[in-house]
Specification:
The protein is α+β, with helices and mostly antiparallel strands and 194 residues long. It contains two helices and nine strands, in the order ααβββββββββ. Helix content is 19%, strand content 27%. The longest helix has 28 residues. Keywords: Signal. It comes from Streptomyces chiangmaiensis. This is Lipoprotein.
Length: 194
């Protein structure tokens, strides 16, 4: 009996160690940006909105540079940056604003893929569409099925939150794609080189 409990504990510890190692690997592979730039961008994020959205992830770009805006009912999404990174991916970021009278969770923005169900209300259902190249790029995910995107908690009426989502990069010559999530209309955005 004791041997069985010990083996079960060892398996659990091994699984935790492997998961931690994979998480560090995924985090380390996302590089290519200037660390000083990342700190400067994140310090400009609005304070006091801790329960609005998961603030982990890449910087969300400058709010004064609007690439695109789309609206679905009371929810407005603003895209403030779309950067091609050296790691072979594109990071799209911006703000989401709840203009309604009730809280919003982002449930209609999550992916319907079974693997991404653990993400809950998030941008896991977002995509980039290259109409010219006739390709659709889905949000990247780590080995545990977590999307490389913002996971929302409650966004109260009148509140805004920063968001980001990372996608595989389209070919180098592709600079314009359509960003789409949930019931929002496809929104054309320009991809900038980093």
């Amino acid at each position: 009996m004791n041997l069985r409990c010990a083996m079960k504990g060892r398996r659990a510890l091994t699984a935790v160690a492997i998961a931690a190692g994979l998480l560090l690997t995924v985090t380390g592979c996302g590089g290519g940006g200037d660390q000083g730039e990342s700190k400067a961008s994140s310090s400009a994020a609005p304070q006091g909105k801790d329960d609005s959205a998961d603030q982990q992830g890449p910087p969300t770009g400058s709010v004064d540079k609007v690439l695109a805006t789309a609206k679905d009912g009371d929810i407005t999404i603003t895209v403030t940056s779309a950067q091609r990174d050296q790691g072979g991916f594109v990071t799209v970021a911006g703000q989401v604003t709840n203009g309604g009278s009730s809280s919003w969770l982002g449930a209609d923005w999550q992916s319907n893929e079974t693997e991404l169900a653990v993400n809950g209300g998030s941008l896991s259902g977002a995509s980039l569409v290259d109409e010219k190249g006739k390709k659709k790029y889905l949000v990247l995910r780590d080995t545990t099925g977590r999307c490389l995107c913002t996971k929302f908690s409650r966004l109260r009426p009148g509140d805004s939150a920063s968001w980001f989502a990372q996608f595989p990069a389209p070919p180098e010559g592709t600079t314009q794609v359509n960003f789409q999530v949930g019931g929002l209309p496809p929104t054309p955005i320009q991809i900038a080189q980093r």
